[in-house]
Amino acid sequence: xxxxxxxxxxxxxxxxxxxxxxxxxxxxxxxxxxxxxxxxxxxxxxxxxxxxxxxxxxxxxxxxxxxxxxxxxxxxxxxxxxxxxxxxxxxxxxxxxxxxxxxxxxxxxxxxxxxxxxxxxxxx
Length: 124
Hints:
The chain is an all-beta fold and 124 residues long. It has two domains: 1-33, no CATH class; 35-121, no CATH class. The protein is 0% helix and 44% strand. The chain has no helices and twelve strands. It has strands at 5-11, 21-28, 31-34, 37-41, 51-55, 59-60, 68-72, 82-86, 91-92, 98-99, 101-105, 117-121. The strands form five sheets. A four-stranded antiparallel β-sheet has the order 1-2-3-6, with no helix packed on it. A two-stranded antiparallel ribbon has the order 4-5. The chain has a two-stranded antiparallel sheet with strand order 7-8. The chain is globular, with a radius of gyration of 17 Å.
């Protein structure tokens, strides 16, 4: 099955050939796409917590959908963790727009191996 996708590629000027371009998808199967910011603070475990922030992957607008997300936490106590998952479905707002809820656990890292829980809501 083929799905038509349109967008543009931007050359970032980075000298690293593996990261010198960014692809911006603007439509997916004829529908405009959108993203959401997400951020928060993990649970307090092993004597510390971590901050995190990122942007969801694009998803179609105007239909029920979810977003995949991925980011790294801040470096605290000499280590960081990965956060990845899929948001819940869109939660519509009375005045238009929507947000998504997300939650999960980080990867296991640290000199004393441990993980943190996280949860929150995306931006509108």
